[in-house]
Every structure is written in structure tokens, then in C-alpha cells.
Amino acid sequence: MAAPLPLTPSTDDWPRYGDGGIDWETVFETPGTGLIAQLRKAPDAAGLRRAARMIVRQLFKRREDAAVRYRYLARVDAFTGDDPESPGAAAPALEEIIDDVAGLLRAVKVHRIEAAGLADDGEGRRGPPAFPGLDR
Fold first, then answer.
1. For labeling, which of 83, 86, 126, 135 is most exposed (least CB within 10 Å)?
2. By the 8 A CB rule, do 65 and 11 touch?
């Protein structure tokens, strides 16, 4: 059984392919140890918010990721009931919140997988130009 992925800023121990690329499917989806499984261990919305925010910070930790990171953090906050634009809104059930946050992270996973497989487009860009899940 694989050890749980730690919710820390270091990605050095994440599973990799032989060429050094990160195995995003394993990172996100391994039952019991992947990032999505870590979300499912949250005892309440506050715990889910902490875990999801740490995951977002892991995935978007570079300086040039700041704008995308802040947008994903805002989406997490909105899903987990800590949305300053909707104060006092009724909170959905924890399982529904987990599913929403997991869906957001799965969109990131798909983007990372696609970006890792795409070559430079000839204009100095790699992968899709925009991050999914931020257009709502």
C-alpha cells in the first residue's frame, strides 16, 4: 500500500514516470492516498477547506502561478462556505462540497496531464493556455 501523499509544499516525493514527469493520475486518484482521497478524509467543511487550500498551494506554488492560485483558492472558499461574496448562504452537505472541490481538482489534473503531453506550439507555449474550472 502506498504511503499517503503529504499535504505539504514539497512535491519531490510525488510519483514520477521514468522521464521525471509527475504521474498526475496517481497523485490525484490513488484510493486512500491520492489528493482526492485526502479531501474525503475531512471531518467537516473547515477541515476540507484547510486540506483543499493546501493542495491548491502545492499545485500552484510558483510565483508566476499567483493569479491562478488566488482564483482557485477563491473557488475553494466559495464551495466550502467561506465566500465573502455570499455571507450567510446556507451550507450544502459535506459530501456535496467534497464532490464540488474534487471536481475542481480533477479539472486541474486533466489540464496537467494534457499539458505534460503537448509539445511547444511554435509560439513558445506549452499546453492549454487557460486553467479549467475558473470560468464560472
1. 135
2. no
